[in-house]
Amino acid sequence: MTSEQTVLHLLEQNRNRYLSGQEVANTLHITRSAVWKAIESLRDQGHVIEGISRRGYRLLTATTDLQKERLAGLLPSFEVHLFDSLDSTNRYAKVLASEHPEKPALVVATYQSGGRGRLGRSFFSPKGGLYLSVLLPMAFDLESAQLLTSAASVAALEAIEQVGGMRCQIKWVNDLYLEGRKVCGILTEGVLGVESGRLSAVVVGIGINFCIPQAAFPLELQGTATSLFDGPSSVPASFDANLLVASLVENLHALVSKLPDRSFLSVYRERSLLLGRKVTVHQDRQTFSATAVSIDDEAHLVVQDDQGRQSVLSSAEISIRLEV
Fold it and tell me: What's the predicted TM-score (pTM) here?
């Protein structure tokens, strides 16, 4: 980790007290100057860090949408980490997995400076979003792990409906759409156990466009992306973002515990945005038109091209977009 990341991690672990610059330096084996530079860099990234002479530094949370104590009360089995800003919640969760692989954890931020999507793409993560990563310290084989992203899609879809009353659809394999525009993206990453050679933990990253004004999206996204609410002022006073996050995590944990029975696939198929529709498939540098026919029991998409030939598409190999 960089100096900024190690300092941030130490401050987050000690939110209930001030840490002097010397204590930080001694703990991390870096210089006082490096501590100061790291603090200033973190502040530039949007972190709220209080500094008081002769007392030290303390990480604060400025967001009024989420409260760490409330999340911890709603999710007593999870270690909760809440930030205003973070480079990547998935990256931070993987650091936690390396330090405490046996502890389930939730990492939440309302802004990401380095959000990532599938296939190494960047993920637009401005302020006004809910970006969370769920660390599940459970062993999976690769076959089961391939179903996790689909299960997470159902967990997020049901949480948004349960708490917000909004009905989303799933665009295979990892996106939620609201009224024809993307509102949520999911990235699942495994943590490999060195000795076992198996997935010893899984990090499920979920980014929800919560209250980003439509005008704040880049021009190239304004026609294809949306938010649950069009700006902070549109969020009802009665809406509790803590409940949305907690509901999502609880749903995910419940589905993962029953992953082998694949019962979630019935909802995944029912809410599919693609089934029965013409799509354009991009695979192995080739592009062809097809109809989305079905989703099999491994959550693969089955398509049929214009010549009547069927193909089974896996998440690791393709991207799909709806024809306009």
Answer: 0.79
